[in-house]
Amino acid sequence: MQDFGAAFGLAFHLLAGMDAELVEIVGLSLRVTFAAVFVSCAIGLPLGALLAVSRFPGRQVLVVLFNTLMGLPPVVVGLLVYMMLSNAGPLGVLRLLYTPSAMIIAQAILVTPIIIALSRQVIEDLNNEYSEQFRSLVVPFPRAIAALLWDARFTLVTVALAGFGRAVAEVGAVIIVGGNINHVTRVMTTAIALETSKGDLALALALGLVLLIIALGVNIAAQLLKSTARRRAYA
Amino acid sequence: MLEASALRAANHRVEEAPAPLPAAERNPLVVRGLVFETPRQRIIDGVDLELPDNRLTVLMGPNGAGKSVLLRLLHGLLTPSAGTILWNGKPPDGRTRRSQAMVFQAPVLLRRSVLSNLRFALGLRGLGCSRREMLSLLGMLGLEPLADRPARLLSGGEQQRLCLARALALRPEVLLLDEPCANLDPASVLMIEEALMKARAAGTKIILVTHDLFQARRVAERIVFLHRGRIAEISPAESFFDTAGSPEARSYMEGRILV
């Protein structure tokens, strides 16, 4: 219990002193996560909207598939990306293994199905409300998609935040494809795993606290957005 | 319909360029043997209807008579199970709908400001409209002070008036309204009816669904009475309210429940 208290004390000391190593790890984590979420949203939001509005054979199969992929095991994704990017793999020539780019790819693969599945649900609900009016107004398909995405923007930001939450806390995939190399691919979650195994609980706890603060910040942002949207009657 | 065609043919012979049709002849509607059914129920059951002129037509009938479904069929939002609908001799499609506008019973508005809702609809038709023109249109329906408010914050009556303003902004040749005044206060009803009268005077063909007898008396020039998916009666409004010809319409006006 005493060790636990001491570790907390050290953690706060590291945080308050803006320890250089800690700042570097947190910075890389945020960079990788933001990039992965950005890529996932760029792919996932239009796909989710298309899936919500279009009717074609096999659509229901795709809906079930993306819902299932929301629970993709990170280590499996890590392994697949590792095999793709390793020297013997089809994308080995890109030499991305053990780089932040590989971590971004792995996280994007994990987050994109979440963005597609959740945005599909959000847009489909909105489309149920708008579709008859859009048909009456003869709204062209691309314009309808754009209008739905724009009108659902507040809810879609919370979808992106859900993806962010998943990515920032992820460890299995990034440790496989990033390798947890100091000053290169070490992020918060992989550092926590390493420091814990080494017995350096102070740094692990400090990183854990930062992760918790980020998660808290994400949830506060989501709540603020929801209440703002409701206040402005856009929800 | 045939007379109009003959008149048009005669005009072609006399003049080099075809003269535009007078407002009263535009958008004749002909419906033949119209049926709409679901696996469980036949909702529209063999409707024949001709609305050759632009007299304001009110579709009346008890709940479940098929009024709203008929309106959606006429607008091309539903596909008939059998029969034909011809606007100007053509079945309803995207092109027809571009010359029409429909106001639904439940207002459907984008999650944007009042003005942005108008701007969105106008943009679809490539219609330019300055802020002042839009404000003037909103003013006609008592919405000018609310122009920059989020549309979904408006009251039910205001939302419905905005839907009508959006429809009118498109300058439709045909305006279809599905119980636009249901559950509205008298002031909103009055503003909507005044706007409809102005549109009617400007030559817009209006088909209004209502089961409000008082409203029908105020605005209708022709009544189409529906019962169980069939047309029980088509009459000029004056004669309908004086001496309705069909037993269904008489029962309805006497307040007896129709089943």
TrEMBL record, chain A:
Its main location: membrane. It is found in: Cell membrane. It holds the Pfam family BPD_transp_1. InterPro entries: ABC_perm_TupB-like, MetI-like, MetI-like_sf. It is a multi-pass membrane protein. Residues 26-222 form the ABC transmembrane type-1 domain. CDD domains: TM_PBP2 (cd06261). It comes from the Bacteria. The chain crosses the membrane at residues 30-54, 61-85, 97-118, 154-181, 201-222. GO terms for cellular component: plasma membrane. GO terms for biological process: transmembrane transport. Keywords: Membrane, Transmembrane, Transmembrane helix, Transport. Belongs to the binding-protein-dependent transport system permease family. This is ABC transporter permease. The lineage of its organism: Bacteria, Pseudomonadati, Pseudomonadota, Alphaproteobacteria, Hyphomicrobiales.
Automatic annotation (TrEMBL), chain B:
Pfam families: ABC_tran (PF00005). Keywords: ATP-binding, Nucleotide-binding, Transport. The keyword Methyltransferase does not apply. Residues 29-253 form the ABC transporter domain. Transmembrane segments: none annotated. One of its GO terms (molecular function) is ATP binding. It comes from the Bacteria. Belongs to the ABC transporter superfamily. This is ATP-binding cassette domain-containing protein. It comes from Stappia albiluteola.
